[in-house]
Amino acid sequence: MKKASTLGAGAVALTVLLAGCGSNTTTTSTVSPNTAATAASTAAASTAPAKKVTITAESFKADQKEKNDQLDQRIARFKAKYPNVEFKKDDWQYNPLEIGIKMASNSAPTEYTTYATEGKVLVDKKWIADITDSMNAWEHAKDMNDLLSKPFVVNGRTYGVPIDGYVMTITLNKKLFKEKGVPLPPMDWTWDDLLDAARKINDPAKGIAGFIPMGKGPEAGWNWTNFLYAAGGDVQKLDNGKVVSLFDSEAGLQALQFYKKLKDENLIPQNWALGYGDALNAFAQGRGAMVMCGSGNAADTAINEGGISKDDLVVYPMPSFTKGGKHTGVLGGNYRVINPKSDKDQQQMAFKWIVDEYFTDDFLKSTQKEIEDRKTKNRVYIPQPINYWKDSSDFGKKYTDLLAKYDNVFKYDPQLLALWDGKPEAQYEAQKFYTEMANVIQKVFTTKDVDLKKLLTDTSTKVQTEVFDKVKVE
What we know:
Largest sheet: 6 strands, mixed
CATH superfamily of the largest domain: Periplasmic binding protein-like II
Keywords: Signal
InterPro entries: Bact_solute-bd_prot1, SBP
CATH architecture of the largest domain: 3-Layer(aba) Sandwich
Low-confidence stretches: 3-49
CATH topology of the largest domain: D-Maltodextrin-Binding Protein, domain 2
Structural class: alpha+beta
Helix content: 40-55%
Protein name: Sugar ABC transporter substrate-binding protein
Number of helices: 19
Strand content: 5-15%
Organism: Paenibacillus whitsoniae
Mean pLDDT: 89
Pfam families: SBP_bac_1 (PF01547)
Number of strands: 12
């Protein structure tokens, strides 16, 4: 699912990285234009090679004028430092069904954006360049977030640069717990802890559910996959060029049994057929004590749309299957990668272009402007708990210090980042898998004596024959 990585503060971060400033912000430089131009010219003369290099950069569709204007501004800033570089622009957006055609016709841009699911398949097909040497030579390589970088590190080599990301979390309404006199579960919680809390908070007579899962659309399968992962399961594997289904397993059965308990004990909303926005809105309206989604997006909706106090919310990692186990949640995000068919000069310049405005004060200024704009509107800034940088880096500390200056910033418990573990989404036909699992979940929620093992086996067979067997892996 890509929804969680394109909502809330993550969207601001993505736009800052792609365009040099937030989509609703304007960065004001304290350096005069003449001084900046002189400095840029000096830097260019000492660092830029004389050879002309042309790269094709990813742009936006024609109707996205503001983003394209910001991209043009960023290109101008880059060319001031590297005047030997010529830019072409391509508004093609990554599509797993189109990338093979783009590569075969040699029409893919020099650099493009893809998502977390695609790392290994793009490496296997040799459709992205190995950027390990460029990454190792970069001064900020050691500052990159290892967890977020993981989907594009294959066999110890690096193939992509993270832009933004999420790890699935569960957001709790502390006010509902307090009103019921129920203590919050430990952050190092388990499935049993979640069930125990849901039972104690659950109040169907008042329309309050203990837990809100997403129950319709592919997001229902996306939610369920977190429990598959937590139980030690997986969706698929690649075996001799064939995609093989793995979710018909003991872990898959345990995850379905967990969902059946939620339904049998009436711990979910009476109207459980909720999509992504429906589930977040129900939580924001106080109709459930806990909801699952990507990172801080549930908090954003609850606080800025539902009027819930930021002090009444807390974000937990996914519960572990057993005490002491991993708190594994689905990891998703967006990544910049480089076309391996471009020559070495183009690849090296494309890497510089991708990371040129990472770790810059412009990003911090843009964030500050966004926080202050929200404050004037009595709104809270919800930072994403995972970013492309390490929190322990100098830049990470600057970012943390900036957030600490404002009282309208949502804060995460430090235990969250210490406990959570991210596992990337399935690499092949994830959306079709999620859709089929949504059908399974709906049967679990509607059929009293459903045979969970048979249901899982039948669905696995269907997905294998109708979806995975048709995937062509070169």
